[in-house]
Design a protein that fits this description.
heterodimer, A: mainly alpha, MetI-like fold, globular, B: D-Maltodextrin-Binding Protein, domain 2, two-stranded parallel sheet
Chain lengths: 548, 344
């Protein structure tokens, strides 16, 4: 098949991106980390590196396990039990997915640390209960649980909708207990969903920076060690650690993908599915009601803390917070300040640029990948999704090493410019976007394209009239994910921002550092609102315009 | 649907509008660890005099400033670097990251407090102290020497700002090693002391604020920090802090200032440089921010009471050695000592 000009240009752009912004930075990182082999021997004889590796792995595995238990159990409850206001509850349960990690971390800091609201509340009013502040590992795990269980919940819920009620009914009728039915029927059915969400949570935990950065105390994690050694000026060590972290993440990704492939075809269901079953007649017991109430508290309390603090005068955490009267002064102060829009604008523009680049690169690469199986397409598939396994901290380090002086890809130094941030976000988000579109393509009937060709439409016309509109829902979904990820990005931003390019997440962090609880909380609340509003509006748009 | 479209339009307009409001003032970018209070104050005072110039500052740890300036070497973002221990300026001078500039008061400062080649000048002398929570301790019961911090009395009672990112803590820790080299001819004794300090340290705080909060609790009433911050924080936020100078002698850091090489707005940066280091400004910094001026020509009448009464023994330190070895020592501390003695 001859390629037209459009396709050739697209291929050139994809290759420019893969070689210039993925392979070239990886090459520089590897070069830097092995630049002095004597140092490597020194590093390898140092127990701290092993400690950091062990901690990062343990943290990731624990995060997967606890989020799995909570998320799957919730999906089970929501699917099989009669619950009042079920759809409202479901949207509530998904809030943490749209909460940028830095907001979650800061909110938890103000809630559960030794100067947090919860601690103070118990000390002031319920002092007979001796409450310990949540610190270190517990705090990090709590934040991970908060941010990550929704993935399991979301994936498991979606799968359960395809579960044939006859099967569970048969199990119950044959005398199996609910417990047995859950473990013998439902859990195996959820296997693919569980593996897919485990991949996401494992990778996200390996790359997690905000929570360990603020709560880790004495424990070493790979991401924070990379940051610390970078700050200490030991570029080789931070590069070396980056390579280790990346390799571990990729190995993890590989193993999980193997697990997924082990069991790919068990769930094919033919014909219509009877969704309801005997199990769905269950009413919630008192324990489960209590459990759901506590969970709703767990989800809302951090955000309420942030909201509450945004109305309390500065420095209130040092005094008795609960005696303070609510005021709007933080909001008025923030909005009267010159240049207040700047961080919001920066975050917004960067997210927008990232979405646009991802939209372009992601769509054409997923169309290429899903085309004919050739070496070229396989190459694109592997390398465009590679950065999914590279944590944000590492991407920042790679970019600093690659683009802080003249280079053949961008010609001038990019460090300190506006563009470096959207580039960092793009590298990490193209795989996310591509994955979303590829899922759309899987359900797409290629006969429609053939029909269009045979009726005489050109390739370009077919693309815009047939392919694009049908893929639109997954394209919008992908863009939305990319937008959320970029709006609140903190991990690579903290190494790459400058005064003119500081984002909302950086502003939240600096206000925390300067102890402007009030203003910091206002920034957090506003960022949260922007993200939630975007998600809500686009969901609404998708539902109204395109009923799929 | 109409409402949604209207909302989208509304937000788009707000963003576009806000994007267009661009001031035509000339920007001077400052990287500084001096804290928002001092930075905001001098931003205001300077901009009143020079409304055509827009002072933009980023507040971060000294070590972060240095790391950034090095990263941005080929595309400098900051014009002025205000504040950080002289050891960092010495390193930056060696790496050719600084511009030469001789301020109008170059001869009004001790020769130990400036660069030989006018690359940086000292602005403040900052003594490091043992700070404590005065609700729990007083000047007599609180420790007053480094060795006392290492005794069992203070086990689990000390909070330390994460030393890797903090210029202050790096100097204090490195000075222990430097002393050990000077007195014993080796580094081991110094590292042994730091190991004991790590054993007694309850936690490492991610930023100064977290450290202040921990210090104001009864669990960890002791820390090592610099005197001006302790005085300023207690004055501003009613933190219950007091301090003891280290005996027999205390580390006194020279806080410096320098122009960043090849930056965009050197001329205006020089104006700000001169402004914040004028006699009036330094006296003001002493009065309001508890900073000890490096300039020797400040009139006694302008000095605040606390400064006139201030007495301490300055520790003799080989700053060249410290500047050269600091990174290596801190790396060793981070790798071999931090958190290692918890289990015993």
């Amino acid at each position: 098949m001859k390629k037209n000009l459009f396709q050739i240009l697209s291929l050139i752009l994809i290759f420019y991106f893969i070689i210039g912004f993925i392979l070239f930075p990886i090459y520089n990182l590897s070069l830097e980390s092995f630049i002095n082999l004597n140092n490597i021997i020194l590093y390898l004889s140092n127990p701290n590196i092993y400690e950091a590796v062990l901690n990062s792995l343990t943290l990731s595995i624990l995060s997967v396990i606890i989020s799995l238990i909570l998320g799957v159990y919730l999906a089970y409850l929501v699917h099989f039990y009669k619950i009042k206001l079920k759809s409202l509850l479901t949207s509530f349960l998904l809030i943490p997915i749209a909460t940028p990690p830095i907001i979650g971390t800061v909110a938890f800091l103000y809630l559960v640390s030794d100067n947090g609201l919860m601690f103070k509340f118990f000390n002031n009013y319920l002092s007979f209960i001796k409450l310990n502040p949540v610190q270190g590992w517990y705090a990090i795990l709590l934040i991970h649980l908060y941010s990550f269980y929704p993935f399991f919940f979301l994936f498991a819920s979606a799968s359960l909708k395809k579960l044939d009620g006859n099967i569970t009914d048969a199990s119950i009728t044959l005398g199996a207990s609910k417990f047995r039915t859950f473990f013998k029927i439902i859990l195996p059915f959820l296997y693919p969903a569980i593996v897919s969400s485990s991949i996401i949570v494992f990778m996200a935990s390996m790359a997690s920076f905000s929570a360990p950065f603020i709560f880790a105390d004495n424990s070493r994690f790979l991401t924070t060690e990379i940051y610390n050694s970078k700050i200490n000026g030991d570029i080789q060590l931070s590069s070396f650690l980056s390579v280790i972290l990346t390799v571990l993440s990729l190995v993890g990704l590989y193993i999980f993908t193997k697990f997924r492939n082990l069991n790919e075809n068990t769930n094919t269901i033919k014909g219509t599915v009877r969704v309801l079953s005997e199990l769905s007649k269950n009413k919630l017991g008192i324990l489960n009601k209590l459990f759901l109430s506590i969970l709703v508290l767990f989800i809302t309390l951090p955000l309420l803390t942030l909201l509450y603090l945004s109305f309390i005068p500065e420095g209130a955490l040092l005094r008795n917070v609960f005696n303070e009267s609510m005021t709007l002064q933080n909001y008025t102060k923030l909005f009267s300040e010159e240049g207040i829009y700047k961080p919001f604008l920066n975050s917004f523009y960067m997210a927008l640029i990232t979405v646009i680049i991802c939209l372009f690169l992601g769509t054409i690469s997923s169309l290429t990948i899903s085309g004919k199986k050739s070496f070229l397409n396989k190459f694109i598939e592997v390398f465009i999704s590679l950065p999914y396994g590279i944590p944000g901290t590492v991407i920042a380090i790679m970019l600093i090493l690659s683009f802080n002086s003249f280079n053949i890809f961008t010609f001038s130094s990019l460090i300190g410019t506006f563009l470096i941030l959207p580039i960092a976000y793009t590298i990490r988000n193209v795989p996310v976007f591509t994955q979303s579109v590829l899922t759309g393509i899987k359900n797409f009937d290629t006969n429609l394209n053939e029909a269009s060709y045979s009726l005489g439409a050109s390739k370009i016309k077919t693309f815009f009239k047939i392919t694009f509109p049908l893929l639109l829902p997954s394209i919008i979904n992908g863009s939305l994910l990319v937008f959320i990820n970029s709006m609140g990005e903190f991990v690579s931003t903290i190494l790459l921002y400058t005064y003119n390019t500081r984002t909302v997440s950086i502003e939240i962090y600096s206000q925390l550092r300067m102890y402007n609880t009030g203003i910091g909380a206002v920034y957090g609340v506003l960022l949260f609102l922007i993200v939630i509003l975007t998600v809500y509006l686009s969901r609404k748009y998708i539902n109204e315009r395109i009923s799929v | 649907m109409k409402i949604i479209n209207a909302l989208i339009l509304f937000f788009t307009f707000i963003f576009i509008y806000a994007g267009c409001v661009n001031s035509d003032r000339r920007a001077v970018v400052i990287y500084s660890p001096h804290g928002k209070e001092l930075l905001t104050e001098f931003e205001k005072r300077f901009e009143e005099k020079h409304p055509e110039i827009d002072i933009q500052w980023l507040d971060m740890g000294s070590q972060e400033v240095y790391d950034r300036i090095r990263n941005e070497k080929n595309n400098p973002q900051a014009d002025l670097w205000w504040g950080s221990p002289s050891t960092l300026f010495m390193k930056a001078e060696k790496e050719d990251l600084l511009s030469e500039y001789k301020p109008s008061w170059s001869d009004k400062v001790s020769e130990y407090h400036k660069s030989k080649y006018d690359k940086w000048y000292g602005t403040f002398l900052t003594p490091e102290v043992i700070a404590f929570n005065k609700n729990v301790l007083n000047k007599e019961t609180a420790p007053d020497s480094f060795d006392e911090l290492l005794t069992d009395n203070w086990k689990g009672k000390i909070v330390i700002r994460n030393p890797m990112a903090s210029g202050t803590m790096r100097i204090i820790y490195s000075s222990v090693i430097e002393n050990s080299v000077k007195n014993n001819g080796n580094e081991e004794a110094g590292f042994e002391k730091l190991k004991q300090l790590d054993r007694n340290t309850n936690s490492y705080a991610a930023d100064p604020t977290q450290m202040y909060l921990k210090l104001s609790s009864a669990e960890t009433p002791v820390t090592l920090w610099n005197m001006p911050d302790i005085l300023l924080q207690s004055a501003l936020y009613n933190y219950p802090f007091d301090y003891n100078f280290l005996t027999p002698s205390t580390v006194v850091v020279i806080d410096g200032i320098a122009l960043v090489k090849n930056s965009k707005n050197q001329e205006d940066a020089k104006l700000f440089y001169e402004f914040i280091t004028s006699v009036e400004s330094m006296a003001y910094q002493a009065n309001k921010f508890y900073r000890i001026p490096s300039r020797l020509d400040i009139d006694e009448n302008l000095k605040p009471e606390w400064l006139k009464k201030l007495t301490y023994n300055e520790m003799k330190i080989d700053w060249n050695l410290l500047s050269e070895k600091e990174s290596e020592w801190m790396k060793k501390w981070d790798m071999d000592i931090k958190g290692k003695s918890k289990s015993n």
